[in-house]
Task: inverse folding
């Protein structure tokens, strides 16, 4: 096992590499790739707070992604509110929505919870497709503003987006680290481990499930707002699709559910696979990346239920033994 | 004043009366044994007291306060902790983390919870296993951990549901020692046991349930010789032949 000092050295080296990456790779694609990796790692971390730590498998997180994207975009278009404020507003709305849907859904156990979350996300998608004021099926094209940090729009280079995405990832990592070491994390894991056992030890199960969902929804929503500002066009198909619910779940599962670094590792493996299969297998190969995902997930769940982190831990143990 | 007072507790499952107007008192500092044949309603009574089942009728008082119908987590906060007959350890978590979950009942700080958990680990003799995932423990150690988790919540009353079932003689003796130590530390114990030999030497008082009704409540010596208890455990035939002698 690495000591704490070692760990900080590695973290420092990692941070430096990622900070100078855009200076080395100046073409749009490598930067775009990393932005996507950071974005999905953040989504994976957000999903992991609820699904990994508290064991509540949501397959409807696209709901919060969409809320984030639409809230910041609508506030910007209708009221000229800065996307940064819109981002926080989206997060706040997502927390409120999570409380509303959490109440009925948390009474459902296991798979039924997952099914309910899919249903709610689908309802949201249909609603958005028909809501004219919010652009309906046509979607919303964000106004092109002068590039600046306050406007959260950059047209000449992807580098600022890169650093912002990296910042979001660091933020989500720090939140996860805090959860992992605090009472919240222990209670989440207890709820995941044994519901009745958790209740008998004084845990208000529903309350802590709410905390997990609210934290998870908040970070997912922030990613949605960032995505809208990055792509500058949103419609229900691009910010409410089922895949935005599924991919973070796959990423976290591949890397290791309920771990701090699992979703980051998962994203660094799955997103490049997805991007490159999309490039090399072209439009006709749509879905090839998903077949690959599926294959990877099956292998992992059969041989390494604790994900790649589990594999790494096992190898380390062997080494030290 | 009784620490725990159960008044006329009744629990029906459809037509089955699992607990039939049971009265029970536990005085501070006691070890009370709750015994009875299979299906007598011991675990049901536990579940009703600890808030896992809603009562059909009756009341539960703890430290003079009516706690009837409170959810289990609030009852734990009030100071009643329980274990389960079929252990509910968090099997993926290390032993220390399992106990920390219990310790967080009285604190929000991880360092305080860790310190408390280390004390409990030591107290319960689980220190050598502290880093092991709970799922990898032996049955005896799982039962011990189940007690340790509940003890870490800082209860005034600890209710143990068959904490010694399925253990061999040595392990049972160790578990009995642990229960004694817990009582010495100032925690009152209510003990459900199936096996009379375990309950008798350590209980101040024994309560006997049969078909959901309380049929006896006395010191262990007197309960052993109680005719109704013998009948409940050994059946009418043995009881009758004994009488003939």
Result:
């Amino acid at each position: 096992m690495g000591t704490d000092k070692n760990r900080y050295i590695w973290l420092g080296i990692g941070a430096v590499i990622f900070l100078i990456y855009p200076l080395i790779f100046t073409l749009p694609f490598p930067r775009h790739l990393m932005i996507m990796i950071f974005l999905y790692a953040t989504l994976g971390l957000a999903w992991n707070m609820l699904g990994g730590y508290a064991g509540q498998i949501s397959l409807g997180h696209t709901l919060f992604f969409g809320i984030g994207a639409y809230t910041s975009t609508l506030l910007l278009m209708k009221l000229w509110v800065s996307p940064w404020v819109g981002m926080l507003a989206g997060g706040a709305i997502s927390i409120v929505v999570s409380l509303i849907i959490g109440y009925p859904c948390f009474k459902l156990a296991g798979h039924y919870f997952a099914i309910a979350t899919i249903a709610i996300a689908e309802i949201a998608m249909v609603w958005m497709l028909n809501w004219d004021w919010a652009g309906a099926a046509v979607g919303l094209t964000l106004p092109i503003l002068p590039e600046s940090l306050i406007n959260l729009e950059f047209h000449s280079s992807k580098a600022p987006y890169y650093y912002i995405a990296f910042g979001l990832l660091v933020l989500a990592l720090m939140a996860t680290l805090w959860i992992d070491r605090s009472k919240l994390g222990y209670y989440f894991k207890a709820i995941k481990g044994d519901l009745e056992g958790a209740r008998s030890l004084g845990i208000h199960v529903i309350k802590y499930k709410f905390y997990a969902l609210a934290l998870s929804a908040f970070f997912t929503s922030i990613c949605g707002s960032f995505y809208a500002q990055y792509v500058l066009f949103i419609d229900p198909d691009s910010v409410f699709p089922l895949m935005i619910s599924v991919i973070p779940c796959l990423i976290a599962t591949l890397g290791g559910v309920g771990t701090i670094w699992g979703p980051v590792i998962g994203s660094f493996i799955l997103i490049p696979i997805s991007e490159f299969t999309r490039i090399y297998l072209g439009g006709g190969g749509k879905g090839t990346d998903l077949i690959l995902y599926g294959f990877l997930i099956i292998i992992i769940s059969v041989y390494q239920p604790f994900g790649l982190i589990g594999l790494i831990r096992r190898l380390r143990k062997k080494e030290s033994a | 004043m009784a620490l725990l007072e159960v008044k006329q507790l009744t629990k029906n499952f459809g037509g089955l009366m699992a607990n039939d107007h049971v009265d029970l008192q536990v005085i501070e500092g006691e070890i009370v044994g709750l015994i009875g044949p299979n299906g007598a309603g011991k675990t049901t009574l536990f579940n009703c007291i600890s808030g896992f089942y809603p009562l059909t009728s009756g009341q539960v008082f703890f430290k003079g306060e009516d706690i009837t119908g409170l959810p289990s987590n609030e009852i734990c906060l009030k100071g009643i902790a329980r274990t389960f007959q079929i252990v509910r350890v968090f099997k993926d978590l290390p032993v220390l983390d399992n106990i920390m979950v219990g310790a967080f009942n009285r604190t929000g700080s991880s360092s305080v919870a860790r310190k408390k958990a280390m004390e409990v680990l030591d107290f319960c003799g689980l220190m050598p296993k502290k880093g092991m995932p709970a799922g990898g423990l032996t049955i005896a150690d799982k039962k011990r951990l189940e007690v340790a988790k509940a003890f870490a919540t800082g209860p005034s009353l600890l209710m143990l549901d068959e904490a010694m079932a399925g253990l061999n003689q040595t392990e049972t003796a160790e578990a009995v020692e642990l229960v004694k130590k817990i009582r010495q530390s100032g925690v009152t114990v209510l003990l459900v046991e199936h096996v009379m030999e375990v309950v008798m030497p350590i209980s101040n008082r024994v309560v006997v349930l049969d078909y959901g009704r309380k049929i006896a409540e006395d010191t262990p010596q007197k309960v052993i010789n109680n005719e109704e208890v013998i009948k409940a455990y050994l059946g009418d035939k043995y009881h009758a032949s004994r009488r003939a002698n």
